[in-house]
Amino acid sequence: MRSGAKTAIVGGVFLVVAGGVGYGGLNLYNGITGGDTSTKTNSGSAPKTGPVTGDEVTTTAKDFLAAWAAGEPEKAGQLTNDPVSAGPAVAAYRDGASISEAVITPGTPVGAKVPFTVKATITYKDVSKPWSYTSELTVVRGQTTGRPLVKWAPSVLHPKLLTAEASVRTGVAKTAAVKAVDRNGKELTAEKYPSLRPVLATLRERYGAKAGGATGVETWIESGSESVPDTPLLVLAKGKPGTLKTTIDAGVQAAAEKAVKAFGKASVAAIEPSTGAIRAVANNPATEFNTAFQGGQAPGSTMKIVTAAMMMQNGIAMPDSKVECPPDVVSRSSTFENLDRFSIPNGTLTESFRRSCNTAFIKAIKPLSSKGIADTALGDTARDSFGIGQNWAVGVTAADGSVPESAGSETPASYIGQGRITMSALNVASLSATVANGGFLQPYLVARELDDREFAKAEPLSRGVASGLQKMMNAAATAPDGTALRAMSGLSSPKGAKTGSAEVDGQNDSNSWFTGYSGDLAAAAVVQAGGHGSEAAGPVVARVLKAG
């Protein structure tokens, strides 16, 4: 029998087609050989060590796929490095998905990885539909036995099975599908706007019943977690989707999707300051995890927006106050430096803000023991004036941002957005929106009236603090030495911005942050390992603001 020919129907459900793995004419019904549990070679020597060989990859992949195809989950599990987890998962997969037949076609190995294609038919009661996808497995050497084994992960069975708790199910859908539309009634789909996939899935789970649709028959991945939405895979029989209006602006969303694709890992979010309505959210790569809403990482010098507000509220400095900006400063037994150790002789707070002087935002702030302010002051300002740390009822899953109580060197580090502070792109976009509006309005994606959820609230910024922040952010965006000048050039007024870079342990380049506003649109972006804020995240924000 030639390589590539169908070899046998096994188990009454699956068959395996020999392909690039080099199965030759082996009849897989009787050809399972890799299940030998011996830990020694034929000569009785010690278990093998070192990388797996090409022949071992070929044979192990063949045997695992054949056992899976034959409906022999225990045997398939024994061919993995985690049989306790793999066996039951293989057993549950076919029944859970209601697969009535399937063909597995292996591809050509690439090192220790073997890709394969599954073409299946899913049948639920009297409804059937074809279903196909690709996945891959990796062969490793067993740590104790030395045997070549499939490295187990649920994603071997399907690439979107990302956790042990997740499972594939077929049946009547839990909720009706929704036709999500933007602020102007334009339909939003995951195919056109990939970053919206997890958003749309969550909107369906939360509001499908409220949108007035009817359920159909579907195959989906059940996440097993309340915080992670289920993932639709196949529609066997369509229900009637209900229409759900969101705050997204399709034009701004399209610009955001394009902007993040210029970088390997990037996220951006955009908000309308006058209302809090979210106009766009985009991530690259676009995965089931919405990093722009759910990610939590140090915001770098974009945090100086909050720090400057804290300084003004506590009488430490106003925009025109003289503040020292030396090349470095020692605070709480730690040394902090400016980029390239620059200094600003006889400068003001505005000059230090627009050039992003780290030392000025540390040296000017004295601890309470020196007749200064409490270590909790930054967190108080973040919560009470910017809503950071409160519970945001956005309409989908979103992190609220965190400015926890600090001690020691963490306190001065927090003033420049390091330490234990974590924020998402949505949180940082809200900082700019708060400044532009003169007060915090909680960002939201769907109307509060849909479920009567309670929005987070904060005290409006005082007129002096609001105008002071607007002045400093405008200087950063318009002054010849402003760090945000290049990115913000050409954007309409009123406008303002703040750059940031956040150091990450074990990462050579800092994460690039940028936030700004123009007219009635504010945005923030983070580019992983992007370096200076103006160089990577700045162009992302500028592209989004120009689309507003």
TL;DR?
By secondary structure, the protein is an alpha+beta fold.
Description:
With 548 residues, this protein is of the alpha+beta class. It contains 15 helices and 18 strands. Strands 1-2-3-4-5-6 form a six-stranded mixed sheet. The protein has a five-stranded antiparallel sheet with strand order 13-12-18-17-16, with helices on both faces. Helix 5 packs antiparallel against helix 15, helix 7 (304-313) packs across helix 10 and helix 7 (304-313) runs antiparallel to helix 13 (463-478). The model is unreliable at 1-14 and 18-43 (pLDDT under 50).
Largest sheet: 6 strands, mixed
Strand content: 15-25%
Low-confidence stretches: 1-14, 18-43
Q: Roughly what is the average pLDDT, rounded to an integer?
A: 90
Secondary-structure-based class equals alpha+beta
Query: How many helical elements?
Result: 15
SSE diagram, text form:
Layout: E1 6-10, E2 14-17, H1 54-69, H2 73-78, H3 83-97, E3 99-106, E4 113-124, E5 127-141, E6 148-150, E7 167-172, E8 178-181, H4 197-207, E9 217-222, E10 231-237, E11 242-245, H5 250-260, E12 266-271, E13 278-284, H6 291-294, H7 304-313, E14 328-331, E15 334-337, H8 349-354, H9 360-363, H10 377-386, H11 410-415, H12 425-437, H13 463-478, H14 485-488, E16 495-502, E17 511-518, E18 521-527, H15 537-546
Parallel strand pairs: 2-3, 8-11
Antiparallel strand pairs: 1-2, 3-4, 4-5, 5-6, 7-9, 9-10, 12-13, 12-18, 14-15, 16-17, 17-18
